[in-house]
Amino acid sequence: MNPRFPDPDAAAPFPSDAAVPPPGCPAHAAADGPGTVPTGVTGLPTGIPADGPSPGVGPGGVRRLYGPEADADPVGLYERLRAEHGAVAPVLLPGDLPAWLVLGHRENLEVSRTPSLFSRDSRLWHDMQRGNVPPDHPMAPLTTWQPLCVFADGEEHERLRRAVTESLSRFEARGIRRYVTRFADQLIDQFVGTGRADLVDQFADQLPMRVITQLFGMPEGYGPRLVDAARDMIQGTETAVQSNDYVTETLQSLVERKRVTPGHDFASMLLAHPARLTDDEVREHLRVVLVSANEPTVNLLANTLELVLTDQRFRATLAGGHMTLPDALEQVLWDEPPMTTNIGRWATGDAELAGKSIKAGDMLLLGLAAGNVDPAIRPDLATPMHGNRSHLAFSGGPHECPGQDLGRAIVDTGIDTLLTRLPDLRLAVTEDELRRDAALMSRRLVALPATFTPRRAKASARTGPGVPSVELPPLRPHYPVGVTAQAPAAQVPVPHTTWWGRLKRLTRGRG
Description:
single chain; alpha+beta; six-stranded mixed sheet; three-stranded antiparallel sheet; globular; disordered N terminus
């Protein structure tokens, strides 16, 4: 158990038995150790010694995608790699594990849309087979094979992903947005009277997980602890494995509870789905949705708020009604995607990509941020991209992020609520004082200090003596008129008019 996170059962009536996380599957075959340059690499950087003085350069002159230099300026690193190698570049991951970073927009789509050549099955990875990714490796939580849709392809992927998308599609947009508004108001009421707030720490960091835990049917108090653990896990820190264990144990407790006492929530819907997921499969898919819906949404929320506070043209245009907030979000998704890279794809056989010889078992990382600024599709980065959804922010192909509409709804409704209640919101520091922390898969805004005219909290949201507690009804799935909640899940059609129904139409047919 990670000492940073308390026992998940200490504050809520969940079962206390915690399941051991799924084991990895290294073959432990005797072979080359970590640090080997990817097989078939051509065009290595010139003028850089193999044991170069820069800590950002590893064996064979290959640049490291981790460490102080990479974290200090990941965008600059992507452009150096593009200049040196073109659309696909050799890189080193933590432990100097070799991989390919896909930098081109077209190449990113080719990899994500061709699972027959570039699979999500991490058991193909030669470094995993050779035992170079032990359970305590920082990347183990993200690459160790588990029985869930993100590691599957073909029919198995379709079965598992349909369980996720169809379970999510049971919830109405109005119900989701109602809870976003409720939790946004609660957060705003904590600082509305002070005239100052850090919109990252006090708003963006907190809002998505509060909505997700409600969707999962979990006590609201779980949100803050899961925020810290999920973020630590996805950033691949030294405690990532322990954080992964905490998330796994918490979700295992949830599954055990919902198996005994099901409710009207996402966890119960997964358990009841006709795909007949095992408890392990349900737990791991809850983890997928939790991680994929929280961290990117936090980043998207913070990045959009930053743009609102720093770009007067953006805010004036938004206030003038010439651009809707959803259109504005697309611009942010182009320029500052919530996830910079996506791990990973593994070559099923020898292949060629952008002139590079990819060998069977090689790992590829989708360069989402780099692909979004590919000069081949965006020769002028100043050209607005409003309404253009061909960005890579949510990846693409069969494994396109299933939680993207949930994320958009949280950001859209959350920001609308914030600006409605604090219309004179303004940045409290100069723009050049804003800082970002970077990791292997994301760049996140450290803080966003803002000021505004102090106001009173909403009467319905204040707490204290004499103030009644106002509770919203439970978040319930949507059923068409004439269909009862007891009807078998396979017989419940999802109306195309619902917001979640749009999510289903976007994903169904691609698995």
